[in-house]
Every structure is written in structure tokens, then in C-alpha cells.
Amino acid sequence: MDTDLTFSSRRSPVVCLHGCVASSQSLASNIGLDTLKRGGNAADAAVAIAAALAVTEPCSTGPGGDAFCLFYNGNTGEIRGINGSGRLPRTQTLDFLEERGYSAEAPPSPSDALNVTVPGAPACWCDTVELFGSHKLSFQEVLSGAVELAEVGFPVAEVTAHHWAHWVEVLRDAGKQLGRDLLIDGYAPKRGQVFRNPALARTLKELGEHGKPAFYQGRVAQAIVDVINQHGGVMTLDDLSGHNSEVVTPLSTEYKGVRLWEPPPNSQGLAALLLLNILENFPLKDALRYLGDPDHVTIPLQTLLDKSYSHQRAQHISMDRTMEGVEPGLMTGSDTVYFCVIDSQGNACSFVNSTYMGFGSGLVPKDCGFSLQNRGASFSLHRNHVNCVAGGKRPYHTIIPALLTDSDSKSQKPQLLAALGVMGAFMQPQGHIQVLLNMLEFGMNPQQALDAPRVFVQYDHKADEWLVNLEEGIDQEVAEALRRRGHKVDWPVTGHKRSRFGRGQIITVGDWWNPSVNQADHPARVLWAGSDPRADGCAQGY
């Protein structure tokens, strides 16, 4: 029952000196920490965690999904990112879909094989280790912890068991019998039940030994194409072999002495920066209007991030009544994992990995042990929409990792303050800003910032109106005040329904968020970390 998920305990932040990891699964956090202790750096540990989460939380993530990462170089202060999102098959154009009878009013179902985009996560994992890793550990060694976890098995955690069961039907839908690789005797594993995934162990082992060709060519690639085509999709081996990650320069904005860094479009990181700029509930139509594949559309990033634009947008916000005429965008669910690592050299890796809606399409390539994402469901079939479907195009992406530095002049090396993120579809930019302001404005430590009840503004398509979700712990007076101002309010949101508020992780360098401490008295480099109680994970350090 939903009421079984209560947050009655108080958890202290993790404090340590050398290295720290935080993820939504304790076994994955342990593998990340072990990777640091074996000589790996933050990038190595992040990929080790990504692979481990693919084993322990396959209803949220895996090699069949996409990934994004931001990396802070502790030596140079340089921040770079990797866009690990995949594209639609080249032949899957709007004309093709319309010929099949689909339209903006009647698109393919979310789990349709036509919504499978090329999985970008494995290439992102490889490229993260190659570009940012320590090179003290081989890629095979980085993935070894996840391989062992898949081979030996692990007890399924409580929150994960709930979501596994919630999404299990997509594995059975339309005769997708290959989903048995992710079930036990046809059923989702229960909490505490040991689950083994030898097929995924084989896939990860081959990826570790042979790199990207092991996934995008050969056995795995053929299995992906076969299962998609068997269910009406059109992906080819060329679509897979032609995939590459993209190294990107993150976007940033300054706020009261700190600078928040987010990945550029086609991710929704821009929305988080705009939210921070106006410090109010941002009308999502602006984000959805401008977020798409930059290879297919011109995006006025400099104009959008100019403070005058945010000032102009802020004029439309009234504290006394709800806004009228705010256009809704596409609102869909998302299951994602976010995790972060800071190592002893001062490097930081902020990483997010997702199969989109639970098990995504529910399609499981034969003997591969993972499901394929359905990220294509976020495309629009409106011909003039910036996110309109097109062959070889990347979709609008909800998943965003973030980094925080000081906002000194660009001539100086930016000092790392935190790696942070909150997963959960359109909650993500709202979550980023809420946990950041919890620390920056209200002096909360990272764990308190994640524990605090959250707000999520979303569009309710059935009711054709905006809905303000208020988590249990927010006073009833707040809900009543918002209703008086014309808002539709859902309060209190309790139990497992709290998943709509996302799941976050935070690691900070120092306690800069503590207003009662003179930072000059704290010269030691102490790492502080928190892990979201809405998930099964933890932060660990040494």
C-alpha cells in the first residue's frame, strides 16, 4: 500500500575527506566507492555505478536507455559534458508515420516499437571512461562489479520492488515474451527476493572486453534490431553502428555567488537555469518551445539566458492569483536514476541514466538482459513543432545532471561546490532548484535539502488544467492559500505516489550552505553528502 512508504527516520549527512558517492541503490553506491578505492576516479566510479544500477534497478535504467554526464576536472576547473542520447531510425520520418495511420491526435502507443530510439547509454559509458577516466582501471575492471552482481544475484530493494511490479505489464504486453529475462517465473521479484540476470552479465562482460562495437555491432546489435522489427519497428544495424555520443559545453547561470551548470538542449537543463533566473514556478511552455535537437532547430540560448529575458518573464507572474493562458506541453512519466561522485583529486561526475517510462518499450533483446527505452514517445507529430519527429533526430530529453561552482570571474578556475541532481521527468528542473535553494537560502545540509517535502507543478491533460502537487509534510495552510489564489492543488501526496517528486543525490565540497559557520575556520576539504529517502539508496564515503 502507498501508506507503507513513510519518512519517519532522521538521517545525518555523510561526511568524509577523500571520495564520496551517492546513488539510489546501496549496492551500486558500494561498487562506486570500491572503484574509487581501487584507483579509479570520479568518472570511472560513475560508470561503475551506472552499470550496477542497470542490474539492480532495471525498471528505471540500463544499457537500453540514454545517459548524460557532466564532468568537473579538479586540476583545470574545466567542465565538459557528454550527451548520450540516441536518435530515431533514419527511415522513421513523419511521412512514414502518417502513412501508417498515425497523427498528432493518434500517435503510436508509448510502448510501441516505433518509439524505440538508439540506446545511447553504452556509448556514453565508454566515452566517459575514455575522455574523463583515470586510465588506471580498464573498462573491463570498471564494469566488473556490475558483472558480478548480475551473475551472483542481489536482493531486490523495497522501493524498487514496488516500481518493478508497477511496470511489469509492459514486459508482458503484446506478447513480448522476451521480458521473462527480467522476471522470476513470469512475475516481478518481491522485496528481498534474490534476482539474477546472467544475460545482462554476458552483455556487460562483452562491453567491458570489446567496448562500443560489442553493443552497436554484432550479437547485441542484431538482437536489438530483431526484436524491434518483430514488433513493427524499423531500426537497422546501420542506425546502431552509426551512433556516437556528443561532447558538449554545459550551459550555466549565476545566482547569489554560485553558478549552476546544466547540459544544453536537447536536454531540459535550460529550464532549470531559467527557473533559477526568475525564482518562481516557470511556465513550461517556454522550455518545451525551445528544447529540441539543436542539429534540427536554431535555439536562441544567449537570449533565453540573458537576465533581461527572465526579468520580462517574471512580470507575468502574480503572487495573488494563478496565471491564465499558459499553454501545456507534453507530460509523460519517467523512470530514471541519478547519481554523483567526487574523488580525492577534486574531480566530480554528475550522471543520469534512463529507459524513460519504467521498462521503456518493454522489448527485451534475446539473451541480452535489458529492455529498450521508449524515448521516442516524447516526440511530437505536429509538423511545425520544434520537437517534431524526424528520421535520425534526437528527442526532447528530460534527464539532466547538474554541477555547482562559485561564480568568480571566468579568468579564474571555478571552484567546485557540489554535484547534484533530482530525477523524475518534468520534475527535474523544479527539483534541481528546490534542493539548491534549500541549501543556499535556508541553510540546509545536503541530506536535509533532499528530505524536505517538495512541490511539483504539472499539466493534467485529462482535466485540461495545471496541477500543483504538494508532498506530505507541507502545511495544509499552504494548500488552502494556493487554492484561494486559483490553483488546482493535490495535497497531501503520500506513500509511493511521492515518486512524482523525483529522487535526488547531492555531494557538496565543504559546508558553504551553513550560514552559522565562518568558512575561514573550515580549511579542510570535507565532503558532505545526502541521498533521497524516496529511493533505496545511500551516500558512502571514505
The main sheet comes to: 7 strands, antiparallel
Q: What is the topology, as strand order, of the major beta sheet?
A: 1-18-17-13-12-9-8
Please tally the β strands and state the result.
Answer: 19
Structural class by SSE content:
alpha+beta
Number of helices: 18
**Overall 3D shape:** globular
Second-tier CATH architecture: 4-Layer Sandwich
Low-pLDDT runs of 5+ residues are 280-285, 287-292, 328-333
**CATH level 1 name:** Alpha Beta
Strand content: 15-25%
Whole-number tally of structural domains: 1
Q: Mean of residue pLDDT?
A: 88
Helix content: 25-40%
In angstroms, what separates the terminal alpha carbons?
A: 37 Å
**CATH evolutionary superfamily:** Gamma-glutamyltranspeptidase, small (S) subunit
Computed CA radius of gyration, to the nearest angstrom: 22 Å
Description:
The chain is an alpha+beta fold and 542 residues long. The protein has one domain (2-247, 330-454, 502-541): 4-Layer Sandwich (Glutamine Phosphoribosylpyrophosphate, subunit 1, domain 1). It contains 18 helices and 19 strands. It has helices at residues 26-37, 42-56, 94-99, 121-132, 139-152, 158-167, 169-172, 198-210, 213-216, 218-230, 237-241, 269-278, 285-290, 301-305, 307-314, 427-440, 446-451, 476-484, and strands at 14-16, 20-23, 66-72, 79-84, 154-155, 194-195, 246-248, 251-255, 258-262, 335-342, 348-356, 402-406, 416-423, 455-460, 465-471, 488-493, 503-509, 527-531, 538-541. Helix 1 (26-37) packs antiparallel against helix 2 (42-56) and helix 2 runs antiparallel to helix 4 (121-132). It is globular and about 65 Å long. 55% of the residues are buried. Mean pLDDT is 88; it is low at 280-285, 287-292 and 328-333.
